[in-house]
């Protein structure tokens, strides 16, 4: 069914029903009571913008309504720059927020955190002026906001092994990332959410060409490719006029932010770590229950020793090299690298307590 109007009270029941079937995004077209309009224009609150510029932004300390308002602030630069319809923008932000599922980790709080991190780095880096055009920056933030849209809380491996309809649709390749990108593009083209309705066809096509590969770059299977592409463009000399170069930077920034939980202060990073581990444990249980190949590397359980080893291994093998490379050419990210180094040290000290 193509649902245009949905009773919000039925949403969770519906999402549970379709969890093991095709993931059908829901669009809430009947919501019209937004705070801002042409008669009541949006004026950014500098205090909120300053909160969004902080490295340690705790998204789960806020209600979803507050997070949607923060998101409006993140996109505030573009309202005047690209003459975006304020009602459509609010409706789009709302629709996306209601189509993140209530997973322990891959939820709306994660989407907001990733978008905020991309925004905060950009604020330090003069809005990515050295690297991106304004339209690129808008595409990057949109990609961040929708990068896990309608995520079911499992990995691509489970989608493929269970022969999920999405795996068949996308030929087992970056199944979830393709779904997130396609869902985001669909929302941007829905009547009422089509914030680019006044854009030229050329600009619309350009946005699509940017958003899709940027989200596909969040697939961990493409981790090494994203890093090598980023290295190569700076080895030959970064050219802002080269779209491939700009694309590489956008992919690198979003991929880094997507796995950027270890960049937060330790107590905040630990909360996110426990959330993803909870999601991993749930997947292992689901695989066992359904008789699917079990992702043993996700079997962490509640053993504090395993949790610590998992976190240190993840930092050493993926996170630290990734962020160190990002900061090599985007020095504004160095603060995040230093936080990773400190968190790695704190995990190691906890590890030593067991000896």
From TrEMBL:
AMP binds at residues 106-110, 148, 258, 311. Keywords: Hydrolase, Metal-binding. One of its GO terms (molecular function) is metal ion binding. GO terms for biological process: signal transduction. Zn(2+) 1 binds at residues 110, 147-148, 258. Zn(2+) 2 binds at residue 148. The keyword Metal-binding applies. PROSITE patterns: PDEASE_I_1, PDEASE_I_2. The active site is at 106 (proton donor). Gene3D superfamilies: 3'5'-cyclic nucleotide phosphodiesterase, catalytic domain (1.10.1300.10). Residues 10-354 form the PDEase domain. The keyword Metal-binding applies. Pfam families: PDEase_I (PF00233). InterPro entries: PDEase (IPR023088), PDEase_catalytic_dom (IPR002073), PDEase_catalytic_dom_sf (IPR036971), PDEase_CS (IPR023174). It comes from the Eukaryota. This is PDEase domain-containing protein. It comes from Blepharisma stoltei.
